Amino acid sequence: MDIFLQLMVSGIAVGGVYALIALGFVLIYKATSVINFATGEFMMVGAYICLTLLTYLKIPFAFVLVFTLAFAFMMGIVIERLILRPLIGEPIISVIMVTIGLSSILKGLAHMIWTADFRSFPEILPAEPWNLGFAIVPSALKWGFIFAIIGVIVFTVIFKYTRLGIAMRANASDQQVAQSMGINTKIIFALSWSFAACAAAIGGIVIGNISGIHPNLGHVGLMVLPVVILGGLDSIGGAIVGGFIIGILENLAGGYIDPILPGFKEIAPFIVLVFILMIRPYGLFGKKIIERV
Prior knowledge:
The chain is an all-alpha fold. Helices cover 72% and strands 1% of the residues. A two-stranded antiparallel sheet has the order 1-2. The protein is globular.
């Protein structure tokens, strides 16, 4: 039972991080109907920027975090303006292919700037683990969970309770109606990419602090796809619930099945993904769309 509780608690902590990264997918999809396959590379770039400022410029972490988020915000605006805005009105598959190409470009730039060496974060936060009595949460995972939950709450509040969030939801529901109400669709698109880049950057810092960073860190973005599909591509609440479900499932698989079938932990989320697509392709909380021909 102690092992079960430990795996559950660790799974919840990991699930919070997954939920934050999944928000990056959902924010862009709700506004543009595009799945951004470069989310993992947004994470990787944010983690490298943070690490560079910490190790080379010796800037305090609080300022580094603010600067990294500002950089991610501007990166989202630049990418949307220069690369994605010219594709407005083009087939969705064309935009998706551009995001795949963008992921390769960012990965290549990371190789050129930071090389392929594995790098670890310096100790930036207190190293005491979280002793819950029935389970212990390691320090890196504890702080990762805290940052992830704060990020999830902030982005959820912005999206659901602010005028900007209402405009983004209106744009996601019907762009023509939103434009007739005075909402600037182009600005909403840019902000959606910027917020998604910020969410990914926080996720990259969290993952980097837990396990280090390298140019292939972006594969974590693909690992989060089952979370997004499970919760529903257009559901913020679904991203949160899906993150916790996949995080717990992954840890339970690692604890109980990996000793028998090594590597099963890595494929368990994708097995869930296949079943979800077969049974409920729009996810637990996604909007069911019926097309009549």
